[in-house]
Amino acid sequence: MTTERTTTTPRGGALAPLAIPVFRALWIAVLVSNIGSWMQTVGAQWLLVDEHAAPVVIALVQTASSLPVLLIGIPAGVIGEFVDRRRLLIGVQAFQVVVGLAMTVLTATGQMTPALLLTVTFLLGTASALQLPAYQALVPEIVPRAMITDAAALSSVGVNVARAIGPALAGVVIAQLGVPFVFAANAVSFALFLVVLVAWRGYRRPETRAEPFIDATRAGLRYVLHAGVVRRLLLQLAAFMVPANALWALLPLVASGPLGLSSGGYGLLLAAVGIGSVGGAFVMPAIRTRLGIGRTVGTASVVFGLSTVVVAIVPVLAVVLVALVVGGVAWIGVVTTLNGTVQAFLPAWVRARGLATYQLVLFGSTAIGAALAGIIATPLGVVGVLAGAGALTALSALLVAVSAFPVLTDRQRAVAPMPLGDVAFVPDDHTAATGETLVLVHWTVPPDHVDAFRAAAVLLGHSRRRTGARDWNLYVDTAAGPDAWVEAFRVGSWQEHVDQHEVRQTGDDARMLDAVRAVAGEPRVEHLVAPGVSSPSSSG
Predict the structure, then answer these.
(1) In CATH, what is the architecture of 429-529?
(2) Where are the domains of the chain?
(3) Residue 20 per-residue DSSP state
(4) In the predicted model, is pLDDT for residue 6 greater than 60?
(5) What is the pLDDT of residue 164?
(6) CATH assignment, 16-402
(7) Angle between helix 317-345 and 351-380 (nearest 10)
(8) Structure pTM?
(9) What is the CA angle 331-153-305, rounded to 5?
(10) Pairing mode, if any, of strands 484-491 and 469-476?
(11) Average per-residue pLDDT in the chain?
(12) 24-59 as b/e: b if 16+ CB within 10 A
Protein backbone atom coordinates (compact mmCIF):
# COMPACT_ATOMS: atom_id res chain seq x y z
CA MET A 1 0.00 0.00 0.00
CA THR A 2 1.47 3.37 -0.99
CA THR A 3 0.55 6.93 -0.24
CA GLU A 4 -1.31 8.80 -2.95
CA ARG A 5 -2.09 12.45 -2.38
CA THR A 6 -2.98 14.82 -5.19
CA THR A 7 -3.07 18.41 -3.97
CA THR A 8 -4.97 19.56 -7.05
CA THR A 9 -7.77 17.02 -6.72
CA PRO A 10 -11.06 18.91 -6.95
CA ARG A 11 -13.65 18.74 -4.21
CA GLY A 12 -16.02 15.96 -5.19
CA GLY A 13 -18.60 15.58 -2.43
CA ALA A 14 -18.86 13.81 0.90
CA LEU A 15 -17.35 10.53 -0.35
CA ALA A 16 -14.49 12.05 -2.40
CA PRO A 17 -11.68 11.25 0.13
CA LEU A 18 -12.48 7.52 -0.18
CA ALA A 19 -11.10 7.65 -3.74
CA ILE A 20 -7.63 8.02 -2.17
CA PRO A 21 -6.42 4.42 -1.53
CA VAL A 22 -4.50 5.07 1.69
CA PHE A 23 -7.30 7.09 3.26
CA ARG A 24 -9.81 4.41 2.22
CA ALA A 25 -7.76 1.59 3.77
CA LEU A 26 -7.19 3.49 7.01
CA TRP A 27 -10.84 4.55 7.17
CA ILE A 28 -12.01 0.94 6.87
CA ALA A 29 -9.48 -0.20 9.49
CA VAL A 30 -10.55 2.54 11.90
CA LEU A 31 -14.21 1.67 11.24
CA VAL A 32 -13.61 -1.95 12.22
CA SER A 33 -11.62 -0.85 15.26
CA ASN A 34 -14.42 1.49 16.33
CA ILE A 35 -16.95 -1.33 15.96
CA GLY A 36 -14.78 -3.37 18.30
CA SER A 37 -14.53 -0.47 20.74
CA TRP A 38 -18.30 -0.01 20.84
CA MET A 39 -18.72 -3.74 21.40
CA GLN A 40 -16.22 -3.50 24.25
CA THR A 41 -18.08 -0.52 25.80
CA VAL A 42 -21.43 -2.34 25.68
CA GLY A 43 -19.84 -5.50 27.05
CA ALA A 44 -18.22 -3.61 29.93
CA GLN A 45 -21.38 -1.71 30.84
CA TRP A 46 -23.60 -4.78 30.61
CA LEU A 47 -21.18 -6.84 32.67
CA LEU A 48 -21.62 -4.24 35.43
CA VAL A 49 -25.40 -4.15 34.95
CA ASP A 50 -25.54 -7.94 35.38
CA GLU A 51 -23.53 -7.58 38.59
CA HIS A 52 -26.00 -4.91 39.83
CA ALA A 53 -23.29 -2.26 40.10
CA ALA A 54 -24.26 1.23 41.28
CA PRO A 55 -25.15 3.84 38.64
CA VAL A 56 -21.96 5.76 39.36
CA VAL A 57 -19.83 2.68 38.63
CA ILE A 58 -21.60 2.05 35.32
CA ALA A 59 -21.20 5.71 34.35
CA LEU A 60 -17.49 5.52 35.22
CA VAL A 61 -16.92 3.23 32.22
CA GLN A 62 -17.29 6.35 30.06
CA THR A 63 -15.07 8.31 32.44
CA ALA A 64 -12.34 5.64 32.50
CA SER A 65 -12.10 5.62 28.71
CA SER A 66 -12.06 9.43 28.45
CA LEU A 67 -10.03 10.52 31.49
CA PRO A 68 -6.62 9.63 29.95
CA VAL A 69 -7.03 12.48 27.47
CA LEU A 70 -7.12 14.88 30.42
CA LEU A 71 -3.88 13.41 31.71
CA ILE A 72 -1.79 12.92 28.57
CA GLY A 73 -3.71 14.72 25.81
CA ILE A 74 -1.27 17.63 25.42
CA PRO A 75 1.91 15.49 25.66
CA ALA A 76 0.33 13.11 23.13
CA GLY A 77 -0.08 16.03 20.75
CA VAL A 78 3.58 17.00 21.12
CA ILE A 79 4.66 13.40 20.50
CA GLY A 80 2.38 13.16 17.47
CA GLU A 81 3.87 16.38 16.08
CA PHE A 82 7.47 15.22 15.89
CA VAL A 83 7.66 11.40 15.78
CA ASP A 84 6.99 9.11 12.85
CA ARG A 85 3.19 8.95 13.12
CA ARG A 86 2.85 5.60 11.36
CA ARG A 87 5.31 3.94 13.75
CA LEU A 88 3.58 5.50 16.73
CA LEU A 89 0.23 4.09 15.59
CA ILE A 90 1.78 0.65 15.03
CA GLY A 91 3.15 0.62 18.59
CA VAL A 92 -0.13 1.75 20.11
CA GLN A 93 -2.18 -0.82 18.18
CA ALA A 94 0.16 -3.62 19.24
CA PHE A 95 -0.29 -2.54 22.88
CA GLN A 96 -4.07 -2.53 22.49
CA VAL A 97 -4.03 -6.04 21.03
CA VAL A 98 -2.19 -7.27 24.14
CA VAL A 99 -4.54 -5.44 26.54
CA GLY A 100 -7.60 -6.67 24.64
CA LEU A 101 -6.43 -10.28 24.87
CA ALA A 102 -5.72 -9.90 28.59
CA MET A 103 -9.22 -8.47 29.09
CA THR A 104 -10.70 -11.48 27.31
CA VAL A 105 -8.80 -14.01 29.39
CA LEU A 106 -9.56 -12.30 32.72
CA THR A 107 -13.28 -12.17 31.93
CA ALA A 108 -13.45 -15.74 30.63
CA THR A 109 -11.79 -17.05 33.81
CA GLY A 110 -14.10 -15.08 36.12
CA GLN A 111 -11.36 -12.81 37.47
CA MET A 112 -12.71 -9.52 36.08
CA THR A 113 -13.84 -7.32 39.00
CA PRO A 114 -15.44 -3.86 38.54
CA ALA A 115 -12.21 -2.18 39.68
CA LEU A 116 -10.12 -4.25 37.29
CA LEU A 117 -12.57 -3.61 34.46
CA LEU A 118 -12.28 0.14 34.97
CA THR A 119 -8.48 -0.17 35.11
CA VAL A 120 -8.27 -2.06 31.83
CA THR A 121 -10.71 0.39 30.24
CA PHE A 122 -8.44 3.20 31.43
CA LEU A 123 -5.43 1.53 29.75
CA LEU A 124 -7.28 1.28 26.45
CA GLY A 125 -8.34 4.91 26.84
CA THR A 126 -4.70 5.86 27.41
CA ALA A 127 -3.68 4.17 24.17
CA SER A 128 -6.50 5.93 22.34
CA ALA A 129 -5.47 9.30 23.79
CA LEU A 130 -1.91 8.74 22.57
CA GLN A 131 -2.90 7.87 19.01
CA LEU A 132 -5.78 10.29 18.33
CA PRO A 133 -3.75 13.48 17.65
CA ALA A 134 -1.25 11.60 15.48
CA TYR A 135 -3.99 9.91 13.44
CA GLN A 136 -6.01 13.10 12.95
CA ALA A 137 -2.86 14.99 11.94
CA LEU A 138 -2.21 12.32 9.30
CA VAL A 139 -5.44 13.13 7.44
CA PRO A 140 -4.30 16.51 6.02
CA GLU A 141 -1.10 14.79 4.85
CA ILE A 142 -3.10 12.21 2.91
CA VAL A 143 -5.98 14.22 1.42
CA PRO A 144 -5.97 17.61 -0.36
CA ARG A 145 -6.88 20.65 1.73
CA ALA A 146 -10.22 21.04 -0.07
CA MET A 147 -11.23 17.58 1.19
CA ILE A 148 -10.20 17.99 4.85
CA THR A 149 -13.70 18.81 6.09
CA ASP A 150 -15.17 15.93 4.06
CA ALA A 151 -12.50 13.60 5.47
CA ALA A 152 -13.33 14.74 9.01
CA ALA A 153 -17.02 14.11 8.27
CA LEU A 154 -16.21 10.64 6.94
CA SER A 155 -14.26 9.90 10.11
CA SER A 156 -17.34 10.86 12.12
CA VAL A 157 -19.45 8.70 9.78
CA GLY A 158 -17.14 5.79 10.59
CA VAL A 159 -17.54 6.39 14.32
CA ASN A 160 -21.31 6.45 13.99
CA VAL A 161 -21.54 3.49 11.61
CA ALA A 162 -19.64 1.70 14.36
CA ARG A 163 -22.14 3.07 16.88
CA ALA A 164 -24.95 1.60 14.77
CA ILE A 165 -23.31 -1.80 14.21
CA GLY A 166 -21.15 -2.36 17.29
CA PRO A 167 -23.76 -2.21 20.06
CA ALA A 168 -26.29 -4.32 18.15
CA LEU A 169 -23.60 -6.87 17.32
CA ALA A 170 -22.45 -6.84 20.94
CA GLY A 171 -25.99 -7.54 22.12
CA VAL A 172 -26.21 -10.59 19.86
CA VAL A 173 -22.76 -11.87 20.88
CA ILE A 174 -23.45 -11.36 24.60
CA ALA A 175 -26.78 -13.18 24.34
CA GLN A 176 -25.37 -16.11 22.34
CA LEU A 177 -21.74 -16.43 23.51
CA GLY A 178 -21.12 -14.14 26.49
CA VAL A 179 -19.12 -11.01 27.29
CA PRO A 180 -15.63 -12.59 26.84
CA PHE A 181 -16.31 -13.04 23.11
CA VAL A 182 -17.14 -9.33 22.83
CA PHE A 183 -13.76 -8.44 24.32
CA ALA A 184 -12.08 -10.95 22.00
CA ALA A 185 -13.73 -9.29 18.98
CA ASN A 186 -12.31 -5.95 20.14
CA ALA A 187 -8.80 -7.43 20.27
CA VAL A 188 -9.23 -8.76 16.72
CA SER A 189 -10.30 -5.30 15.52
CA PHE A 190 -7.09 -3.81 16.93
CA ALA A 191 -5.11 -6.52 15.15
CA LEU A 192 -6.73 -5.66 11.79
CA PHE A 193 -5.81 -1.98 12.16
CA LEU A 194 -2.26 -3.08 13.02
CA VAL A 195 -2.04 -5.16 9.84
CA VAL A 196 -3.15 -2.20 7.69
CA LEU A 197 -0.56 0.08 9.29
CA VAL A 198 2.23 -2.45 8.79
CA ALA A 199 1.23 -2.90 5.13
CA TRP A 200 1.34 0.88 4.53
CA ARG A 201 4.84 1.38 3.13
CA GLY A 202 4.60 4.72 1.36
CA TYR A 203 4.38 7.02 4.37
CA ARG A 204 7.01 9.75 4.54
CA ARG A 205 7.42 11.59 7.77
CA PRO A 206 7.06 15.37 7.21
CA GLU A 207 10.22 17.41 7.57
CA THR A 208 9.98 19.09 10.95
CA ARG A 209 12.64 20.61 13.15
CA ALA A 210 12.83 18.77 16.44
CA GLU A 211 12.01 20.94 19.45
CA PRO A 212 12.64 20.32 23.15
CA PHE A 213 9.57 18.64 24.62
CA ILE A 214 8.75 21.39 27.13
CA ASP A 215 9.27 24.14 24.57
CA ALA A 216 7.06 22.34 22.04
CA THR A 217 4.35 21.86 24.66
CA ARG A 218 4.45 25.53 25.61
CA ALA A 219 4.33 26.56 21.95
CA GLY A 220 1.21 24.47 21.35
CA LEU A 221 -0.58 25.81 24.42
CA ARG A 222 0.50 29.35 23.57
CA TYR A 223 -0.96 28.99 20.09
CA VAL A 224 -4.37 27.86 21.39
CA LEU A 225 -4.37 30.54 24.10
CA HIS A 226 -3.94 33.30 21.52
CA ALA A 227 -6.01 31.81 18.68
CA GLY A 228 -9.44 33.31 19.25
CA VAL A 229 -11.12 31.09 16.65
CA VAL A 230 -9.85 27.90 18.28
CA ARG A 231 -10.77 29.08 21.78
CA ARG A 232 -14.30 29.92 20.66
CA LEU A 233 -14.79 26.52 19.04
CA LEU A 234 -13.47 24.72 22.13
CA LEU A 235 -15.79 26.70 24.42
CA GLN A 236 -18.79 25.69 22.32
CA LEU A 237 -17.64 22.07 22.33
CA ALA A 238 -17.32 21.94 26.13
CA ALA A 239 -20.68 23.67 26.70
CA PHE A 240 -22.37 21.00 24.59
CA MET A 241 -20.42 17.90 25.59
CA VAL A 242 -20.61 18.10 29.40
CA PRO A 243 -24.42 17.85 29.65
CA ALA A 244 -24.88 15.84 26.43
CA ASN A 245 -22.80 12.93 27.72
CA ALA A 246 -25.34 12.21 30.43
CA LEU A 247 -27.34 10.38 27.76
CA TRP A 248 -24.50 7.99 26.88
CA ALA A 249 -23.58 7.44 30.53
CA LEU A 250 -27.12 6.65 31.73
CA LEU A 251 -28.65 5.00 28.66
CA PRO A 252 -27.84 1.48 29.96
CA LEU A 253 -29.94 2.26 33.04
CA VAL A 254 -32.79 3.59 30.90
CA ALA A 255 -32.65 0.36 28.89
CA SER A 256 -32.61 -1.98 31.87
CA GLY A 257 -34.97 0.14 34.01
CA PRO A 258 -37.93 2.04 32.50
CA LEU A 259 -37.75 0.22 29.16
CA GLY A 260 -37.07 -3.24 30.63
CA LEU A 261 -34.68 -4.25 27.85
CA SER A 262 -31.96 -6.88 27.71
CA SER A 263 -28.43 -6.35 26.37
CA GLY A 264 -29.79 -6.82 22.85
CA GLY A 265 -32.34 -4.08 23.43
CA TYR A 266 -29.64 -1.75 24.72
CA GLY A 267 -27.68 -2.44 21.55
CA LEU A 268 -30.79 -1.53 19.55
CA LEU A 269 -30.95 1.86 21.32
CA LEU A 270 -27.33 2.65 20.47
CA ALA A 271 -27.88 1.43 16.93
CA ALA A 272 -30.69 3.98 16.57
CA VAL A 273 -28.25 6.75 17.54
CA GLY A 274 -25.73 5.41 15.04
CA ILE A 275 -28.27 5.27 12.21
CA GLY A 276 -29.25 8.88 12.86
CA SER A 277 -25.60 9.94 13.00
CA VAL A 278 -24.76 8.26 9.70
CA GLY A 279 -27.72 9.90 8.01
CA GLY A 280 -26.79 13.21 9.59
CA ALA A 281 -23.29 13.06 8.17
CA PHE A 282 -24.66 13.05 4.65
CA VAL A 283 -27.15 15.88 5.13
CA MET A 284 -24.89 18.12 7.21
CA PRO A 285 -22.85 19.57 4.29
CA ALA A 286 -26.06 20.98 2.77
CA ILE A 287 -27.30 22.19 6.16
CA ARG A 288 -23.98 23.91 6.93
CA THR A 289 -24.05 25.59 3.53
CA ARG A 290 -27.54 26.90 4.21
CA LEU A 291 -27.22 27.84 7.90
CA GLY A 292 -23.50 28.43 8.38
CA ILE A 293 -21.32 26.93 11.11
CA GLY A 294 -22.75 28.82 14.08
CA ARG A 295 -26.45 28.29 13.38
CA THR A 296 -25.83 24.63 12.49
CA VAL A 297 -24.18 24.02 15.86
CA GLY A 298 -26.83 25.99 17.74
CA THR A 299 -29.78 24.28 16.07
CA ALA A 300 -28.26 20.82 16.47
CA SER A 301 -27.58 21.48 20.18
CA VAL A 302 -31.24 22.35 20.78
CA VAL A 303 -32.44 19.27 18.89
CA PHE A 304 -30.10 16.93 20.80
CA GLY A 305 -31.21 18.45 24.12
CA LEU A 306 -34.89 17.95 23.29
CA SER A 307 -34.20 14.36 22.19
CA THR A 308 -32.55 13.67 25.56
CA VAL A 309 -35.58 15.06 27.40
CA VAL A 310 -37.90 12.80 25.38
CA VAL A 311 -35.78 9.73 26.20
CA ALA A 312 -35.96 10.65 29.87
CA ILE A 313 -39.70 11.29 30.25
CA VAL A 314 -41.35 9.01 27.65
CA PRO A 315 -40.62 5.34 28.52
CA VAL A 316 -42.06 3.99 25.27
CA LEU A 317 -39.59 2.04 23.10
CA ALA A 318 -40.87 3.30 19.73
CA VAL A 319 -40.76 6.93 20.87
CA VAL A 320 -37.31 6.53 22.40
CA LEU A 321 -35.96 4.96 19.20
CA VAL A 322 -37.24 7.89 17.12
CA ALA A 323 -35.78 10.38 19.62
CA LEU A 324 -32.41 8.64 19.49
CA VAL A 325 -32.35 8.65 15.68
CA VAL A 326 -33.08 12.40 15.68
CA GLY A 327 -30.53 12.88 18.45
CA GLY A 328 -27.95 11.03 16.37
CA VAL A 329 -28.46 13.48 13.50
CA ALA A 330 -28.04 16.40 15.91
CA TRP A 331 -24.97 14.88 17.59
CA ILE A 332 -23.16 14.53 14.29
CA GLY A 333 -24.17 18.09 13.42
CA VAL A 334 -22.34 19.49 16.44
CA VAL A 335 -19.30 17.20 16.61
CA THR A 336 -18.53 16.99 12.88
CA THR A 337 -18.95 20.72 12.34
CA LEU A 338 -16.67 21.69 15.21
CA ASN A 339 -14.05 19.01 14.50
CA GLY A 340 -13.84 19.70 10.78
CA THR A 341 -13.61 23.45 11.37
CA VAL A 342 -10.74 23.05 13.86
CA GLN A 343 -8.85 20.67 11.55
CA ALA A 344 -9.16 23.02 8.59
CA PHE A 345 -8.21 26.10 10.61
CA LEU A 346 -5.08 24.84 12.41
CA PRO A 347 -1.79 25.57 10.58
CA ALA A 348 0.41 22.60 9.73
CA TRP A 349 3.21 23.37 12.20
CA VAL A 350 0.93 23.05 15.25
CA ARG A 351 -1.84 20.81 13.92
CA ALA A 352 -1.23 17.74 16.10
CA ARG A 353 -0.84 19.86 19.24
CA GLY A 354 -3.98 21.85 18.41
CA LEU A 355 -5.95 18.68 17.77
CA ALA A 356 -4.64 17.27 21.04
CA THR A 357 -6.17 20.28 22.79
CA TYR A 358 -9.43 19.64 20.93
CA GLN A 359 -9.37 16.01 22.08
CA LEU A 360 -8.55 17.17 25.60
CA VAL A 361 -11.74 19.24 25.66
CA LEU A 362 -13.80 16.57 23.88
CA PHE A 363 -12.84 13.64 26.10
CA GLY A 364 -12.37 15.72 29.22
CA SER A 365 -15.92 16.97 28.85
CA THR A 366 -17.04 13.38 28.27
CA ALA A 367 -15.29 12.18 31.42
CA ILE A 368 -16.63 15.03 33.55
CA GLY A 369 -20.14 14.84 32.13
CA ALA A 370 -20.39 11.07 32.57
CA ALA A 371 -19.03 11.15 36.12
CA LEU A 372 -21.36 13.98 37.16
CA ALA A 373 -24.36 12.23 35.64
CA GLY A 374 -23.57 9.03 37.50
CA ILE A 375 -22.99 10.79 40.82
CA ILE A 376 -26.14 12.91 40.63
CA ALA A 377 -28.30 10.03 39.37
CA THR A 378 -27.80 8.07 42.59
CA PRO A 379 -29.77 10.51 44.82
CA LEU A 380 -31.96 12.19 42.19
CA GLY A 381 -32.78 9.35 39.82
CA VAL A 382 -31.98 8.69 36.17
CA VAL A 383 -35.08 10.38 34.73
CA GLY A 384 -34.56 13.70 36.51
CA VAL A 385 -30.85 13.88 35.68
CA LEU A 386 -31.42 13.10 32.00
CA ALA A 387 -34.19 15.67 31.69
CA GLY A 388 -32.04 18.33 33.33
CA ALA A 389 -29.04 17.44 31.18
CA GLY A 390 -31.18 17.71 28.06
CA ALA A 391 -32.30 21.21 29.06
CA LEU A 392 -28.69 22.30 29.68
CA THR A 393 -27.62 20.87 26.33
CA ALA A 394 -30.29 22.89 24.55
CA LEU A 395 -29.27 26.00 26.48
CA SER A 396 -25.68 25.63 25.20
CA ALA A 397 -27.02 27.00 21.92
CA LEU A 398 -27.38 30.38 23.63
CA LEU A 399 -23.60 30.78 23.31
CA VAL A 400 -24.05 31.13 19.56
CA ALA A 401 -26.42 34.04 20.13
CA VAL A 402 -24.49 35.67 23.00
CA SER A 403 -20.99 35.25 21.54
CA ALA A 404 -20.82 35.55 17.76
CA PHE A 405 -19.40 32.51 16.01
CA PRO A 406 -16.19 33.19 14.06
CA VAL A 407 -16.52 33.77 10.33
CA LEU A 408 -14.04 31.50 8.57
CA THR A 409 -14.67 32.37 4.93
CA ASP A 410 -11.75 33.91 3.05
CA ARG A 411 -9.28 32.97 5.79
CA GLN A 412 -5.72 32.39 4.54
CA ARG A 413 -4.35 29.38 6.43
CA ALA A 414 -1.43 28.37 4.19
CA VAL A 415 2.14 29.12 5.26
CA ALA A 416 3.23 32.64 4.27
CA PRO A 417 7.02 32.91 4.78
CA MET A 418 8.27 36.34 5.81
CA PRO A 419 11.81 37.58 5.03
CA LEU A 420 13.97 37.76 8.14
CA GLY A 421 15.57 41.05 7.11
CA ASP A 422 19.16 42.16 7.41
CA VAL A 423 21.14 40.04 9.86
CA ALA A 424 24.84 40.82 10.27
CA PHE A 425 25.72 37.33 11.48
CA VAL A 426 24.00 34.02 12.18
CA PRO A 427 24.41 32.65 15.73
CA ASP A 428 26.22 29.35 16.09
CA ASP A 429 24.12 26.19 16.41
CA HIS A 430 24.29 26.05 20.20
CA THR A 431 23.28 29.69 20.64
CA ALA A 432 20.58 29.36 17.97
CA ALA A 433 19.06 26.41 19.83
CA THR A 434 19.23 27.77 23.39
CA GLY A 435 19.74 31.52 23.29
CA GLU A 436 16.65 33.56 24.14
CA THR A 437 15.97 36.16 21.44
CA LEU A 438 14.60 39.66 21.97
CA VAL A 439 13.08 41.30 18.90
CA LEU A 440 12.62 45.08 18.78
CA VAL A 441 10.52 46.41 15.90
CA HIS A 442 10.73 50.22 15.53
CA TRP A 443 7.70 51.89 13.92
CA THR A 444 7.24 55.53 12.94
CA VAL A 445 3.59 56.46 13.44
CA PRO A 446 2.09 59.78 12.31
CA PRO A 447 0.19 61.43 15.21
CA ASP A 448 -3.18 61.22 13.43
CA HIS A 449 -2.72 57.46 12.88
CA VAL A 450 -1.90 56.43 16.43
CA ASP A 451 -5.33 54.96 17.25
CA ALA A 452 -5.42 52.92 14.04
CA PHE A 453 -1.84 51.77 14.67
CA ARG A 454 -2.52 50.64 18.22
CA ALA A 455 -5.64 48.70 17.20
CA ALA A 456 -3.77 46.93 14.39
CA ALA A 457 -0.71 46.34 16.62
CA VAL A 458 -2.78 44.54 19.27
CA LEU A 459 -3.93 42.03 16.66
CA LEU A 460 -0.35 41.70 15.45
CA GLY A 461 0.69 41.03 19.06
CA HIS A 462 -1.65 38.04 19.21
CA SER A 463 -0.09 36.82 15.96
CA ARG A 464 3.41 37.14 17.45
CA ARG A 465 2.32 35.14 20.51
CA ARG A 466 0.60 32.45 18.44
CA THR A 467 3.73 31.88 16.40
CA GLY A 468 6.22 31.80 19.28
CA ALA A 469 6.54 35.02 21.30
CA ARG A 470 6.57 34.33 25.03
CA ASP A 471 5.55 37.90 25.79
CA TRP A 472 4.77 41.00 23.77
CA ASN A 473 4.46 44.70 24.52
CA LEU A 474 4.15 48.03 22.76
CA TYR A 475 6.19 51.05 23.90
CA VAL A 476 6.73 54.70 23.04
CA ASP A 477 10.42 55.60 22.65
CA THR A 478 10.68 58.78 24.74
CA ALA A 479 14.21 59.45 23.47
CA ALA A 480 13.13 59.47 19.82
CA GLY A 481 9.84 61.37 20.05
CA PRO A 482 6.06 60.75 20.24
CA ASP A 483 5.91 59.20 16.79
CA ALA A 484 8.48 56.50 17.68
CA TRP A 485 6.83 53.25 18.77
CA VAL A 486 8.62 50.02 19.61
CA GLU A 487 7.11 46.56 19.44
CA ALA A 488 9.11 44.24 21.74
CA PHE A 489 8.73 40.49 22.11
CA ARG A 490 10.81 37.58 23.41
CA VAL A 491 11.17 34.21 21.68
CA GLY A 492 12.62 31.11 23.32
CA SER A 493 15.52 30.81 20.88
CA TRP A 494 16.93 32.21 17.68
CA GLN A 495 15.85 29.05 15.85
CA GLU A 496 12.28 29.48 17.04
CA HIS A 497 12.31 33.05 15.76
CA VAL A 498 13.54 31.80 12.39
CA ASP A 499 10.63 29.33 12.45
CA GLN A 500 8.27 32.26 13.04
CA HIS A 501 9.45 33.71 9.75
CA GLU A 502 9.75 30.53 7.70
CA VAL A 503 7.07 28.03 8.75
CA ARG A 504 4.73 29.39 11.43
CA GLN A 505 3.20 32.46 9.83
CA THR A 506 0.00 32.00 7.83
CA GLY A 507 -1.61 34.30 5.30
CA ASP A 508 -3.84 35.65 8.08
CA ASP A 509 -0.75 36.59 10.12
CA ALA A 510 0.76 38.29 7.07
CA ARG A 511 -2.41 40.37 6.65
CA MET A 512 -2.12 41.57 10.27
CA LEU A 513 1.46 42.67 9.64
CA ASP A 514 0.42 44.40 6.42
CA ALA A 515 -2.31 46.29 8.32
CA VAL A 516 0.33 47.78 10.64
CA ARG A 517 2.61 48.57 7.71
CA ALA A 518 -0.24 50.41 5.99
CA VAL A 519 -0.34 52.83 8.93
CA ALA A 520 3.33 53.04 9.97
CA GLY A 521 5.33 52.07 6.89
CA GLU A 522 8.33 49.73 6.95
CA PRO A 523 9.88 49.21 10.39
CA ARG A 524 13.47 48.95 11.53
CA VAL A 525 14.13 45.62 13.29
CA GLU A 526 16.72 44.70 15.91
CA HIS A 527 17.50 41.14 17.02
CA LEU A 528 19.23 40.62 20.37
CA VAL A 529 20.31 37.04 21.08
CA ALA A 530 21.41 35.90 24.54
CA PRO A 531 24.45 33.60 24.75
CA GLY A 532 23.46 29.96 24.58
CA VAL A 533 22.87 28.09 27.82
CA SER A 534 25.84 25.84 28.50
CA SER A 535 25.56 22.56 30.34
CA PRO A 536 27.60 22.60 33.55
CA SER A 537 30.79 20.66 33.13
CA SER A 538 31.60 17.94 35.59
CA SER A 539 35.01 17.63 37.15
CA GLY A 540 36.52 14.54 38.48
Answers:
(1) 2-Layer Sandwich (3.30)
(2) 16-402, 429-529
(3) S
(4) no
(5) 67
(6) 1.20.1250.20
(7) 150
(8) 0.73
(9) 10
(10) antiparallel
(11) 83
(12) bebbebbbbbbbbbbbbbbbbbbbbbeeebebbbbb
